[in-house]
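Let's sit down with a protein and look at its sequence and fold side by side. Once you have written the record down, we can walk along the chain together.
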Amino acid sequence: MSAPGDDSIIRTDHLSRRFGSLVAVRDVSLDVKRGEIFGILGPNGAGKSTTIRMLCGILDPTGGSGTVVGHDIVREAERIKERIGYMTQRFSLYEDLTVLENLVFYAGIYGVSLRRRRQRVDEVLEQTGLTGRRKQLAGTLSGGWKQRVALACATIHEPPLLFLDEPTAGVDPVSRREFWERIHEISARGTTAVLTTHYMDEAERCHRLAFIFGGSLLDVGTPDEVVQRRGLRVAELEIDRATEGAAALRGCAEVEEVAHYGHLVRLATRGGVDPVAFARSILEPRGLAVTGARETRATVEDAFVAMVRADG
């Protein structure tokens, strides 16, 4: 159990999981604070979903320990399941039931009292914009609307902690943005949200992040902290004979990454090296003019790629 007054809602110590000879998660230590939107990021197969399933009490760890909402993840898994919401990347609700029937069903499963149930269902319908679709069969909804129903069902019992496993996979960009607005609204009402994603742009919307690659934890911090620790600087360049210029830059030790973005070349440099001045110093002696340049911010994706390369 967590100590009284402890503001950690999740705490793990060297959490690991093996499947035979495969180590899916190794020595992951996390400390998630109450009220955070906490992102667990990494590519497919990195160990994100395995980590979430251990935290939810669905999968026993093979090493390490942890507590979630004050309960031990091994000895008190059933108590954890009562106090969390869980939304998977696949729509796992009942498609032959209406939106309303799904909500009523999950309210019963999660133990919402009969006295509170009707009021709570109406609240969730209103909060998620589903009131006008309450009588529609869930199976006839588009992906974005199904996502709303899944989130509504996962929060019907007002859990203090919500797990979201790849919640925006396969959802269009507009629905993804609307989904994130709802996550921030839920967080503002006091629910902690822990989510996995391989969409690096979504990381910018989290309060703090954990980066997992190959089952190992590479870094934890706010988006700005994670980016700053990499020491990257980035510029967008207009270069005569851009393909030739990009090839010349790639071979330099100071360069982290060179990529084409339409007509621009995006250059990321290591160790605080000025990317614009550096590009000119390499390209102009080769007769390749930099006709336009502007420095821009390094992103979480830049930081993650740099971490993975360094780890490799």
